[in-house]
Amino acid sequence: MTSIDCLTFGVADPTAAERFYADAFGLDKQVRLRASQEPTSGFRGFTVSLVVSQPSIVDGLFGAALAAGATELKPAKKSLWGYGGVVQAPDGTIWQLASSSKKDTGPDSRQIDEIVLLLGVSDMAATKRFYVERGLTVAKSFGSKYVEFDGSSSTVKLSLYGRRGLAKVAGVPPEGSGSPRLTIGGDAGTFTDPDGFTWEPAG
User: Fold this and answer.
1) Considering the chain, what is the average pLDDT of its residues?
2) pTM over 0.90, yes/no
């Protein structure tokens, strides 16, 4: 089964970005950084979700991210599906902080249960087929709106979302151009998907 071990972000200042991810989310192995001056503007076509067990953990991560220099895109609050908010890291990456629970059952543990990479795609059927051909197994599929792949063996799970829908969830306009400044590290080899996202072996 194809798995994702890490996400590499292209950033202008790797040292500052490394400090942000350690302070905000306590991430080190799952996020890698490389210096990049590749042109990029607007929505980069992806978000990363940190899924946790209860609202207090969302609030803790949200506050830590803002204190470390993130920008609030959507405040943390209750919704139909649970509790969550959206922040943008100083390097431009958009992070969704979410819990399916609306009530706390204990103190903020800072425990992250899942990391999910959501790719905004232009043709759901074509991109879904592309990834299935490369060894990913579909766990859930909702027509042209959303596809979730089995991530039981992965550090990072992969999901597909329509680009405009994902931008709406993130709280940003869907327009964007240039590099996504994202490289997906896994065991599927080296390739670029239909929406321009690059994979490479996680060394």
Assistant:
1) 95
2) yes
Measured distance CA(191)–CA(54) in Å, rounded? 37
Contacts of 128 (CB under 8 A, 6+ apart): 138, 141, 147, 160
Q: How far apart are CA 152 and CA 171, in angstroms?
A: 29
- DSSP-assigned beta bridge partners for residue 35: 11
Pairing of strands 4-11, 31-35: parallel
> Taken in order 98, 64, 169, 157, is the CA torsion positive or negative?
negative
Report helix, strand or coil for 195. coil
pLDDT band with cut points at 50, 70 and 90 for residue 75: very high
Residue 184 CB-density burial (10 A; 0-12 exposed, 13-18 middle, 19+ buried): buried
pLDDT band at 1 (very low <50, low <70, confident <90, very high): low
